[in-house]
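Weekly puzzle thread! Below is a chain. First person to post its structure in token form gets bragging rights.
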Amino acid sequence: MRFCMVSTFYPPFSFGGDAISVQRLSRALVRRGHEVTVVHDVDAYQVLHQGPMPPLRKEDEDQGVRVIRLKSRWGPLSPLLVHQLGRPVVHTRRFRDLFRSGRFDVVTFHNPSLIGGPGILAWPENAVTVYMAHEHWLICPTHVLWRHKKEPCDRRECLRCVAAYHRPPQVWRYTGAIARALRQVDVLIALSEFSREKHRAFGLEREMTVLPNFVPDRIDEPPINAVSPHPRPYFLFAGRLERIKGLDDVLPVFRSLPEADLLVAGEGSHGPSLHRISAGQTNVRFLGRLDQTTLSHFYRHAVAAIVPSVCYEIFPLVLIEALREGTPVVVRRIGPGPEIVSASGAGETFSSPDELLGILKRLVNDPEHRNSLGLRAVQAVHERWTEAVVVPQYLDLVRTAARRRGLPIGATSANTLAPSGTVSV
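Winning reply:
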């Protein structure tokens, strides 16, 4: 089959785990003999990114994935028009050409917020269409249900909230545009049961199928490094350094835990504040951003990974990345974290700093308890969250939708596919 993935962000022009999930799915499909084209918007990333643009590791190819990087001479105006009008403007012709009849068997929309808005969802012709909700964009203008930049959202105050984020309101959100667009989509996917219920609670009427994130299957990996990267017992936090990730009340806990360290891997705008909070703490260390191989090494030797988000996550990749290494997870009792801990039996949940401290003390001082959780972690990932388990479920959803619509998937012409590279308009 021939797939098109549409996402505002894609590595290396991306933030957080959402784009990594798109990349993993795309690479997994290529490994199974399918052809995959990814379309993403460089201008959107440049608008939101502070600092120099990341280098491209390969100009034309991403492990067999064709990558089309949209860029316009209009620069930030292009994603701004999408944000405000809810449809592509600058890249209309490009998308119409890409989606012309017969080019792709399947078009999956991941995060269309600044590349196409809801308007683009109805454009593919004679293809199975899938929407995969990596964020809460369908029900929240800020994507994260973090009201007024200070608390989880439990009721709509959207106009006041977007003002707190210094964003212009999106009038199209009040016209039923999303509901109309989703009527043209064959399959809607939520990454967790929590996310599906949250979409329903905020008024999404279309049914969603739960299909989780996954970690790649281990093929031809180098031998596991048995030497810890850190000389003392440590807990690991990995993720963007933002207020919603919840480190603010975790750092002080380690003042009462001198027998272990906290290693923080990641970068973000909230980093300076976190450095101030942890000033003088010798058992807190900031590692900066780590590549995936190095991060896996740190996961493997941690007492546990701490995922203390205070917002409604969708499905944090860090949870299953840690579990794959046989490392238990400690998550705040909000969002999908408790759901994943319950399914795996390989972690603990907390609500308060005092409760967190008790959990961390037991994990570091009771190796038998910690190791028993670690054994469950590996088994749970093998059964639920590997590429070999999840990707066939995705393909089954696609084939079922194709049969329902009577579409002959897998019969497109290879010479119609777009080349990789940056497309400027």
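Puzzle host: Confirmed. Bonus trivia for everyone else. The CA atoms of residues 80 and 203 lie 26 Å apart.
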